[in-house]
What we know:
The protein is α/β, with parallel strands linked by helices. The protein folds into two domains: 5-96, Alpha-Beta Plaits, CATH 3.30.70; 137-296, Rossmann fold. Helices cover 35% and strands 31% of the residues. It contains eleven helices and 16 strands. The strands form four sheets. The chain has a seven-stranded mixed β-sheet with strand order 12-11-10-13-14-16-15, with helices on both faces. Strands 3-4-2-5 form a four-stranded antiparallel β-sheet. A three-stranded mixed β-sheet has the order 7-8-9. A hairpin with a 2-residue loop joins strand 15 and strand 16 (289-296). Helix 1 packs across helix 2 (62-73) and helix 5 packs parallel to helix 6. It is globular, with a radius of gyration of 19 Å.
Amino acid sequence: MASTQTPQTHRATLAIGDEATARRVSDLLTESLDAGEAAVAAFEGPTGRWDVTLHFGDAPVEARIRELVRLAGGDEVARSVKFDVVEAKDWVKATLEDLIPVHAGRFIVHGQHDRAKVAPNKLGIEIEAALAFGTGHHGTTRGCLVLLGHVLKAHRPRRVLDLGTGTGVLAIAAAKALHDSVLASDIDALSVKVAAENARLNGVGPLVEVTWGSGFSAPRLRQRKPFDLLLANILANPLRQMATAMSDHLAGGARVILSGLLSAQAPSVIAAYLARGLVLERRITIDGWSSLLLHKVR
């Protein structure tokens, strides 16, 4: 396994006065930065303020980072971002070792060091430190996992797609719960490799097929459709843009779980899918992020 040790680490730090804003900022950064580009962590300090830290393998574009922070935290928080360079460090592992397991219904996303903490009645999803460029420690993935658990209480989908799989957390969760095959895709070639390796490490490598492709352009998606469960934890704009293509890849009565949406963005995404014959079943909000469960009218 390749080492994540780097000659030097580029870092961005900022302090935020409340947890909700800190989580919005860290979540937007995690969702917006490419896999492997940065490790993002948010922790409460001894004074009650929250510290958000980003570690980069290469020097970041500072204006881009400030703009992402501004979108989620406002102008004052964006101006407070400080950039520096620190000594050589395994920056991905160092960040993940401080993260606690994420509980989302019947699922728990955890690191290797917390493997023993997974209760027998829970489904653990273990993410290796060196293979975790986005671990699900934010409201979008937690929301998707909660909704996935809700769907599986009443339905047993036969064709499942995790679109924009990232580290493969949602595909692994579905494969573990269903004991059946799941198709996962991503536009990022590194994410495809990472998701496949994470599936193998979680004992569902034979069940999770990971393919490369932009949106619905991958040949395997056309071959495997129609899907009766589709998960897409992406961002609002691409979700709106692919509403027609997504509807075309769904079976009648299919369930769709969408996330990556700030709460203010959810209504426009819902409207795009209502116009394509889907109906909203449930909407949940975690740390300022909305996750949606819809189904396609037969």
